[in-house]
Structure formats: C-alpha cells, structure tokens
C-alpha cells in the first residue's frame, strides 16, 4: 500500500510540475493569482482593444488621405491612387501577419480593414470622381477581389472570403446600375463566383459560394431585362452568351471536382446546376421571342450538352460508386436531353422517343441493379404522358364533365400508354441499401400512370358506344357507371398484381384506389345515376371490395406464372 501511494504522489507531482511550466510560458498562472482568476478574460479584452485601436488608426489614415484629396492638397487622381495603395498595404500586412502563429486575429482585422477601405473607394472612383470607366472599375474590382480571395485561401481566413463575396457582389451590382456598364460587371460576377467556388473547394468552407452564385445569377437576369431596354447597350445574344458561359463554367468546375479530385456533389452543386439550366432556358426563350436566335440551335446545343453530362455519370469510377455523382450527372444529362429533344422534335415524336428511351432505361435498371435508372424511366414516362396529352385526356375521361366534349385519342397517346404498361413487364431494380424503402417508389409511379392512362383510354373508347359521345347528348348515368366499373377493375388488377414478385408495390395503391372509387360513388354516381346504373356501380364496387379483402388477407401465395 505504501509503495502504491508513493507512486501516485510521484505522478501527481509530475503533473503539477508540467502545469507550472505551461503557466509560466503562457503567463496565465501569475495573472490568475494576481487577479483572482479573471486574467484570461482581461487578456481577451486587452487583445480586442488592441485590434480595435489598430483598425481605428487605419481608418484615421484613410480619412487623412481623403481630407488631403478633398482640399486639393494632392490632385484627385493621385489621392485616389494613394488611398488604393494604402488599402493594399494593409492587405499585404494581413498576408504577412496571417503566416505568424498567434497573429491570426490581427491579420483578419487588417484584411477586413483593407476590404472596407477599397470597395467604397473603387465605387467612388467610378461614380463620383469619374476617374475610372465602368469597364476599368470592373477590372480594378476583379484584381482586388482576386488578391483578397487568394489571401483568404493562403491564410485560411473564411470571414474574409465571406466579406469579399458579399462586398464584391454588392459593389458590382451597384456599379452596374450607376455606370450603365452591364457586361463588364456581369463578367466580374462570373469570375467572382468561380473564385469563391474554388476557394471553398480548396479550404472546405461553406457559404461564400452561395452568395457569389446568387450575384452572378442576378447579373444574368439583369442582362436579359436590360437587353429589351433602349437606354442600355446590351444585345440579346450577349445575355444568351453569358447564360451559356455561366452553365459551362459551373459544370466544368463540378466535373473537375468530382472526376479529378474524387469528391461527391453536394447541395450547392445540385441547386446551382438546376438554376443555371433554368436561366439558360429562360434566356433562350426571351432571345428567341425577339427573333434573335433559332430555337432549333438551342435544342441541338441542349442535346449535345446533355449527352456529354449523361456520359459523365457513366465513367468507371462514378458508375462503380453508384453514389450522388452518378445520380446528379445522369439525371441532369437526361433533363437536358429531354429539353433539347422537345425543342427539336414535334410533341408527339418527342413523347414517343421518351417512352422508347424509358423502356431502355427500365431494361438497364434491372440488368445493372440500379434504382436511379428506374427513377429516370418513371420521369420520362411522366414527361411523355404530359407532352403527348394522354394524362390530360385520361383525366378528362375519368373525372371530366361528361356534358362537355372531350379531345379525341391520337396515336401517340396509345404509344405512350402501351410503353407505360410495357415497362411494368421489364424487371427493374426494386431493392437497394442506399435507397431503402424508397427503392420501390419509381414502380409505384409507373403503376399510377398505367392505371391513369389505360383507364382513361378505355373510357374514351367505350363511352361513345355505351353512353354516347361526350357532350349534351351523353347519358351521364351510364357514363358514371362505366367509369366506376373501370376503376373498380383497376383496384382488383392492382390487388392481383401485388402478389407477383415484379409488382409488390401495387399493394400500396389498392386501398387508396378503393377509397377513390367510394368517393366517386358519392360525388358522381348517386347524383347522376339511375336505378339500373346504380346497381351496376354498387355491384362493381362491392365486388371489388370483397375480392380485395379476401385476396390481400389470404396468406397462401397463388400460383403465378413467372
């Protein structure tokens, strides 16, 4: 016991000795003894006071130069030059101090002071003193923001990057309106956006790239709006060129980060890519409306760009990982391909092409075990349904006013409906550890589309011979019974399908379908029905409910042909 106590006392003594050494080096121990343990707070206050004092002296020097300039002790041009040089000196001091351990806070104060001095000075040089033209002001702003961003990256000053992104965007947008020089400042905003993006990538920061992206997006929108204003010298094609440059700059940056540096895309990449594509579509529409560009050219550009982006999703590394990069590039590329084909082709041919491509994606989804391709298949089928008109036609047939005329069925609608049903018979990926329970969601979407489209087409084909052509001569009671019978049959079909290995997701639609049919009975059948038609409707719904209840509760798997 005595030996153990001796060892413990020796260790405690060693720890106390180390603490004394640390306190001696930092000065904390002595100050704490003299002031009752509040020396650390006083030291922090002292440091903050020192830094604030330096900032006040820096701004005092700047106001001295301003007073000398205003009183014409020095010429205006020389005064502005001295003020800019003075601000750059403090940026250099921030760079030097940032490399010294323990002086990071002081370096940040120097950098912030330099920024707060330079940006207003550049604005006044363009607007108040007319020493710089709009283009020259944009160049000067680019040089300073570039140097400041470089300092922020080299010395790991995230706050400086935030300040440069916000201050640069604000100054550029102000000077854009004040100098009537839109193109130069939008070009600066694009450079600032790229600089902030790569600064964030280099230091794994968060935030500055969002502000810079917001600025350049606003700049492109401003160009489009100003191109129709006679008071501004902005051409439509300049706005279109900047929109293309914006999209390409971001996509190239994203591709380098993901395919060369091996990083995954995040929320910013997804949001900004969608915004950039949306801006390009908006600008292309405005430019074509003015007759300055042929939309077919834009369509071919979207097709080529979409094919390239889609290919980025199928590089060996991206395909093997099957992570967010594959989903991002393949989905974005598919969106561009769809948009380009919609512009180049007629609606019917485009819808048929999308339906055929959906079948191909469904086949590859099952072969490669990729839920993403199954999702893309369902998205293409939705787009084909809208463009071909089969979804709107199906809705009118199933729920439209029978007293009004309906559109006729066209061949493209039948093609899309057949492709939707055909995709259900192609095995697709329905299980994934990454997707979890959402892996079956694409199949649910396709099942809904199939019921919607096929049910609507059946009503359109059968209604004229049973209930009369929709319009003033139609028998609304018979039409309601026909609709109810088809929907009840759809519920039974979904129940039977749910026991098949290929359509287990159908079970999630069976009871919602029965609820929908029950609501339809109250809303349509009873108000418009006759005894005979109500007998048909009630028999159809009642039989469907009994069959579904028995089928879904029967635990014995039926023999289904595989």
Describe the structure in brief.
By secondary structure, the chain is mainly alpha-helical. The chain has helices at residues 2-26, 28-35, 39-70, 76-98, 104-127, 134-154, 158-179, 182-203, 208-227, 236-260, 267-289, 295-312, 316-321, 324-344, 347-368, 371-388, 390-399, 411-424, 441-466, 476-497, 507-528, 531-553.
What does this structure look like?
The protein is mostly helical and 562 residues long. It folds into four domains: 156 residues; 110 residues, no CATH class; 125 residues, no CATH class; 86 residues. The protein has 22 helices and no strands. The protein is elongated.
**Assembly form of the protein:** single chain
Q: Give the averaged pLDDT, no decimals.
A: 83
- Which residues sit in consecutive blocks of at least 5 with pLDDT less than 50? 22-46, 556-562
Number of helices: 22
Q: How many whole angstroms does the radius of gyration measure?
A: 35 Å
Principal-axes geometry comes out as elongated
| Structural class category | mainly alpha
Largest β-sheet summary? none
SSE order? HHHHHHHHHHHHHHHHHHHHHH
Query: What is the share of helical residues?
Result: over 70%
């Amino acid at each position: 016991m005595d030996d153990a106590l001796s060892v413990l006392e020796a260790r405690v003594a060693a720890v106390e000795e180390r603490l004394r050494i640390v306190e001696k080096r930092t000065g904390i121990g002595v100050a704490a003894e003299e002031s009752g343990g509040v020396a650390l707070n006083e030291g922090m206050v002292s440091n903050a006071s020192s830094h604030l004092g330096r900032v006040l002296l820096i701004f005092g020097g700047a106001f001295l130069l301003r007073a000398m300039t205003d009183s014409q002790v020095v010429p205006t041009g020389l005064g502005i030059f001295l003020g800019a040089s003075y601000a750059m000196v403090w940026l250099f001091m921030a760079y030097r101090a940032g490399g010294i351990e323990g002086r990071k806070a002081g370096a940040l104060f120097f950098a912030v002071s330099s920024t707060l001095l330079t940006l207003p000075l550049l604005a006044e040089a363009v607007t108040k003193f007319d020493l710089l033209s709009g283009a020259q002001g944009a160049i000067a702003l680019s040089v300073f923001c570039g140097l400041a961003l470089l300092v922020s990256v080299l010395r790991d000053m995230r706050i400086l990057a935030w300040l440069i992104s916000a201050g640069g965007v604000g100054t550029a947008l102000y000077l854009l309106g004040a100098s009537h020089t839109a193109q130069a400042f939008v070009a600066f905003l694009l450079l600032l956006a790229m600089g902030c993006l790569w600064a964030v990538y280099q230091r794994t920061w968060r935030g500055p790239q969002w502000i810079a992206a917001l600025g350049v997006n606003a700049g492109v929108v401003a160009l489009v709006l100003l191109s129709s204003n006679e008071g501004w010298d902005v051409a439509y094609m300049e706005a279109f060129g900047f929109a293309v440059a914006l999209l390409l700059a971001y996509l190239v940056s994203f591709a380098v980060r993901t395919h060369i540096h091996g990083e995954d895309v995040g929320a910013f990449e997804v949001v900004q890519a969608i915004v950039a594509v949306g801006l390009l579509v908006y600008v292309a529409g405005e430019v074509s409306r003015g007759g300055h560009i042929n939309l077919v050219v834009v369509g071919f550009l979207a097709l080529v760009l979409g094919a390239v982006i889609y290919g980025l999703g199928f590089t060996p590394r991206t395909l093997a990982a099957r992570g967010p990069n594959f989903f991002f590039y393949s989905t974005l590329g598919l969106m561009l391909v769809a948009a380009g084909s919609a512009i180049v082709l007629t609606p019917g041919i485009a819808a048929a092409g999308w339906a055929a491509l959906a079948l191909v994606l469904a086949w590859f989804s099952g072969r490669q075990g990729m839920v993403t391709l199954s999702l893309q298949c369902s998205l293409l089928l939705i787009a084909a349904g809208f463009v071909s008109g089969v979804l709107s036609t199906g809705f009118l047939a199933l729920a439209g006013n029978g007293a009004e005329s309906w559109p006729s069925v066209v061949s493209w609608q039948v093609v899309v409906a057949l492709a939707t049903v055909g995709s259900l018979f192609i095995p697709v990926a329905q299980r994934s550890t990454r997707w979890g329970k959402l892996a079956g969601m694409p199949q649910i979407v396709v099942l809904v589309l199939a019921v919607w489209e096929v049910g609507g087409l059946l009503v359109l084909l059968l209604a004229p011979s049973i209930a009369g052509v929709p319009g003033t001569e139609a028998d609304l009671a018979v039409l309601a019974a026909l609709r109810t019978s088809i929907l009840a049959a759809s519920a039974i079909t979904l129940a039977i399908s749910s026991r098949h290995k290929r359509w287990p997701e159908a079970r999630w639609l069976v009871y919602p379908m029965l609820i929908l049919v029950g609501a339809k009975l109250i809303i349509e059948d009873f108000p418009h029905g006759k005894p005979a038609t109500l007998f048909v409707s009630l028999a159809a719904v009642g039989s469907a409910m009994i069959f579904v209840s028995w089928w879904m509760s029967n635990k014995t798997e039926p023999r289904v042909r595989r």
